[in-house]
Amino acid sequence: MAFRPDSTLLLARLRASTRLAMLVLLGVCGLCIDIGQAVYGLQQCQNVADAGALAGSQELPYPTPATTMARSIATANVPTSQTSLFSVNATYYAKDATVPNYGTAPYGGAVLVTAAKNVRYVFLRALGFRGVTVHRSSVATKIITGTCISPM
Known about the structure:
Layout: H1 7-57, H2 63-76, E1 86-93, E2 98-99, E3 103-104, E4 110-120, E5 131-142, E6 149-151
Antiparallel strand pairs: 1-4, 2-3, 4-5, 5-6
Helix pairs in contact: 1-2
């Protein structure tokens, strides 16, 4: 007669492995959701920075109106329910100034807009992670000889 394991013991082992598999699956899903939120935050920051830089470049070569316009349009493009999570900064670079990570500003200058968002984790909090701050920036300039706006 062949040995047959007790069916209740087999059922208990199956339940334990199912619980473990579900726990792992939920953990991976939570990780994907939180990372997805961070990637979505990066795209939102890029949209805000692009809008601000293009609007600010309309006011070049005048530094104060350019940075004011860039900041106000960028802030207007922040989703209304998330204004407390975003920060926007606009900087003017004069002709031949070195714009960080972009190169030399052309005649008329350039506007650099940086947007940052605090992304709060939901599932990764269980592992002790609170969230991350994501940043994106955009630079634009205006070619003075015409009305063309050129992203850098």
